[in-house]
Amino acid sequence: MRWSWRWLGGGLLVAALAVPFGLGYLAGARTQVQEQVPAPGPQLTAEQATRVRAVALAHPTVQAVLAERSPEGYAISIGPVTGPTGELVGGYLAVDFAEPQTLRGEWLLAVDWRVRWPPTTERHTYTAYNVDLVVVWVDLASGQVVQVEPTGPYTTVAREEDPSELQEPLRSRAIEIALKEPWLAAVLAGSSYRIESVSRSRHRTARSSGRSCG
After folding, report:
1. Which residues are within 8 A (CB) of 149 and not within 5 positions of it... i.e. 6 or more apart?
2. pTM summary value
3. Which of 25, 65, 30, 36 is nearest to 152 (CA)?
4. For residue range 2-53, what is the model confidence (pLDDT) as tens digits?
5. Cβ contact 141:165 at 8 Å
């Protein structure tokens, strides 16, 4: 679910900075929720869907979010999550807000979903703005939550808290190395520019048989 492109000066994407370190962060988690379309594939049984709902709603972060909001202000949907080879591996619960929300919490992010299941996870505390959905993944085999993420096409996170951002001192080092690349130096020569983002590499693309979930 989980994703923004930043610009250098006259339209050059700062993603170029990611080349030396392989730091191109796939920011699709925040937009792909709305890019997926339903497709045939494995589906949850009624029993599995009930289990996914119970496990997801019992997660502390989800409970904290919902405790502060009226049930009339959101809708809940449940669907399947497929693994790297297309098999049914989990289920998702999506909390779809009627209005964009500002949410602060400890979020659980699935890092390498595309290449392994269950995925490696990271915990990050941050405030997310313009959140349309909170999406929770549940691993069917273990019954454990493997992702809780606030997302949406316009969701943003302050740079100093954004888990996708490379922080100091690595940020400065990445910029230094990138700006030494001859082709980039030639492009920027004589131009006025500002570096707004340096992202770290993570596989964060989600897929499900129905609505995207992360």
Report:
1. 1, 2, 29, 107, 108, 109, 134, 135, 214
2. 0.63
3. 30
4. 333 233 333 333 333 333 333 333 334 444 444 444 556 899 999 999 999 9
5. no
